[in-house]
From TrEMBL:
This is Fe2+/Zn2+ uptake regulation protein. The lineage of its organism: Bacteria, Thermotogati, Thermotogota, Thermotogae, Kosmotogales. PANTHER family: FERRIC UPTAKE REGULATION PROTEIN (PTHR33202:SF7), ZINC UPTAKE REGULATION PROTEIN (PTHR33202). It comes from the Bacteria. Keywords: DNA-binding, Iron, Metal-binding, Repressor, Transcription, Transcription regulation, Zinc. It comes from Mesotoga prima MesG1.Ag.4.2. One of its GO terms (biological process) is regulation of secondary metabolite biosynthetic process. Fe cation binds at H110. The keyword Cell cycle does not apply. Its cofactor is Mn(2+); Fe(2+); Zn(2+). Belongs to the Fur family. Zn(2+) binds at C78, C81, C118, C121. InterPro entries: FUR, Fur_C, WH-like_DNA-bd_sf, WH_DNA-bd_sf. GO terms for molecular function: DNA-binding transcription factor activity; transcription cis-regulatory region binding; zinc ion binding. Binds 1 Mn(2+) or Fe(2+) ion per subunit. Binds 1 zinc ion per subunit.
Amino acid sequence: MKRLTSLRREVLDLINNSESPLSADGIYGALKEKPNLSSVYRSLAFLEDEGLIRSISFECETRFYFSSEREPVHFLHCKKCHKTEPFYECFADSFAKKVAESRDFTITNHVFYFIGICGECKRKLLSDIEDGKL
């Protein structure tokens, strides 16, 4: 493995200590020293190539980065505000076993997510409808 620079270490620590996935912009905003944003993206690419972090993109163009230390990983993602919450209850294991057996495929990992609207966005939407704003 190439050297883990101070920037790579700080990015990795931010991701490992976060309860929810972080975007590159979110990571950049949380860094103590402000490198250029391209350095953050290069650090993220390095960390992902080394298997230290993973990424996911939901129904938006933004990639979200999360720790590869916590498994299994499942998410609830709000398509309005893009808030993402992890949950760790895994019901996919028995389903994955059936899929793997029926297709002669070895599953080594999985990421599972639901996309919807969070309670806060739903309440705002209903309020806007009631107020005639929509």
